[in-house]
UniProtKB/TrEMBL annotation:
<dbReference type="GO" id="GO:0005737">
    <property type="term" value="C:cytoplasm"/>
</dbReference>
<keyword id="KW-0963">Cytoplasm</keyword>
<dbReference type="GO" id="GO:0004222">
    <property type="term" value="F:metalloendopeptidase activity"/>
</dbReference>
<keyword id="KW-0378">Hydrolase</keyword>
<dbReference type="InterPro" id="IPR002036">
    <property type="entry name" value="YbeY"/>
</dbReference>
<feature type="binding site">
    <location>
        <position position="110"/>
    </location>
    <ligand>
        <name>Zn(2+)</name>
    </ligand>
</feature>
<dbReference type="GO" id="GO:0004521">
    <property type="term" value="F:RNA endonuclease activity"/>
</dbReference>
<dbReference type="InterPro" id="IPR020549">
    <property type="entry name" value="YbeY_CS"/>
</dbReference>
<dbReference type="Pfam" id="PF02130">
    <property type="entry name" value="YbeY"/>
</dbReference>
<dbReference type="InterPro" id="IPR023091">
    <property type="entry name" value="MetalPrtase_cat_dom_sf_prd"/>
</dbReference>
<feature type="binding site">
    <location>
        <position position="120"/>
    </location>
    <ligand>
        <name>Zn(2+)</name>
    </ligand>
</feature>
<comment type="function">
    <text>Single strand-specific metallo-endoribonuclease involved in late-stage 70S ribosome quality control and in maturation of the 3' terminus of the 16S rRNA.</text>
</comment>
<dbReference type="GO" id="GO:0008270">
    <property type="term" value="F:zinc ion binding"/>
</dbReference>
<feature type="binding site">
    <location>
        <position position="114"/>
    </location>
    <ligand>
        <name>Zn(2+)</name>
    </ligand>
</feature>
<keyword id="KW-0255">Endonuclease</keyword>
<protein>
    <recommendedName>
        <fullName>Endoribonuclease YbeY</fullName>
        <ecNumber>3.1.-.-</ecNumber>
    </recommendedName>
</protein>
<keyword id="KW-0540">Nuclease</keyword>
Amino acid sequence: MMEHSFKLAIQYAANAESAAFPTRSQFRRWVKLALEQEAEIVIRIVEKSEGRALNHDYRGKNYATNVLTFVYDDTDPLSGDIVLCAEVIENEARQQHKALMAHYAHLTVHGLLHLQGYDHVSDDEATIMEKKEIHILTRLGFEDPYIASCEALTLG
C-alpha cells in the first residue's frame, strides 16, 4: 500500500473530565493508514453543545452525533475537517463495551473514508465502507468494530 503525505492539525476543544483523548501520534498513525491520497486535515474534538450545533446547522439534526465530516476540496490535496464529539463517543464506547481508543480509532477512520468519498447510504456502499474500516482497524491492532457492537447489543 502506497503512503500518502498529509498535513494534520488536531484541535482539542473539549474537556477530558471522564476519559482521555487520543494523542496526536495516535491520530497520525490512524490517518496514515486510512488515506488513499494526499490530504490536509483538521481533526477537532468537541463538546456536545458544539457537536449538536454543527449537526443542526449542516445536517438539520438537533442532536450531537459521534463524527461529522466536512469536505472542502476533494482534489489533490484532499482538504477537510473531521469533528469528533467526545461525550457521544465516550457514551457509545461504554454502552457498546468497547475500549475508548478503539472507538476513537474507528470513528476517525470512518470520518477519513467519508472525506475520501466513501459513503454508506446504500447497502452496497455500506458493505464496501465497512470492509475498508475493518481492514484498516485490523492493521492498527483493533478488533472488528461491527462484531463488537453486535455482541454488545445481544448482551445488553
